[in-house]
Amino acid sequence: MTSLSIVIPVFNESGNIAPLVREIIQHLRGQVAFDIICVDDRSEDDTRDVLIALAAEVPELRMLVHQCRCGQSAAIRTGVKYALSPWVVTLDGDGQNDPADIHDLIRARANADPLVRLVTGWRVDRQDAAGKRWASHWANHIRRRLLHDDTPDTGCGIKLFNRAAFLDLPYFDHMHRYLPALMQRAGWKTMSVPVSHRPRRTGQSKYTNLGRALVGVRDLLGVSWLIQRSHVPIVSEIGSGRKL
């Protein structure tokens, strides 16, 4: 893997984004060619000002701003569309993902089946409140039973995936929580890699258990419908008369 684009969706993360970007620089500079794309989803604090100041000292950093709030999935998709590299790593802007784990995802992909287009992190020791861990446990259990995506943790923000394969997926709000099932629906393979998880430095989570549950049921049923109605064609080119 010769280069990476690091995509970070941010909303009201003024206290977390600068330390996170500096950690990425620490772990990647001199190891792999990369660019960092921070997508500000119309933050209400001074996240944008922090990013502007940070861009002056970090040449790898690029900043994109949504003119209206569109949500995390839209911010991720915006960043991927502007990515310069064929492989993309996503990280949550709250700093709970450890950039050091990027190397583990790269190594796993290098040793995997060529059809693997998504390597997702698996938070084996979550540092969230008990109620949030409980809700995620049951959400993951129900999702796996319904979608059969063989993924223990789809909510982990750190992921490595192929840019072209991602952009070929159907887009909808909250799609980032269903990437393994969507990639598998498209005919690709996925895998999970244990990663670390850290407490928030500052700020508050943007989601509540009730809010996730209300949209999660609808999204889960929608993704299940997509999978049931999908067929992946196997294509062979015959009689083209061209010399390759």
Automatic annotation (TrEMBL):
Q: Which domain of life is it from?
A: Bacteria
Q: What is this protein called?
A: Dolichol-phosphate mannosyltransferase
Q: Name one Pfam family in it.
A: Glycos_transf_2
Q: Which SUPFAM superfamilies match?
A: Nucleotide-diphospho-sugar transferases
In the record, what lineage is assigned to the organism producing the protein? Bacteria, Pseudomonadati, Pseudomonadota, Gammaproteobacteria, Steroidobacterales
Q: Which GO terms describe its cellular component?
A: plasma membrane
Residues of the Glycosyltransferase 2-like domain: 5-166
**GO terms, molecular function:** undecaprenyl-phosphate 4-deoxy-4-formamido-L-arabinose transferase activity
Query: Which BP terms does GO give this entry?
Result: lipopolysaccharide biosynthetic process
- Which keywords belong to this entry? Cell membrane, Glycosyltransferase, Lipopolysaccharide biosynthesis, Membrane, Transferase, Transmembrane, Transmembrane helix
The record's annotation in Gene3D superfamilies points to: Spore Coat Polysaccharide Biosynthesis Protein SpsA, Chain A
Which InterPro entries is this protein grouped with? Answer: Glyco_trans_2-like, Glycosyltransferase_2, Nucleotide-diphossugar_trans
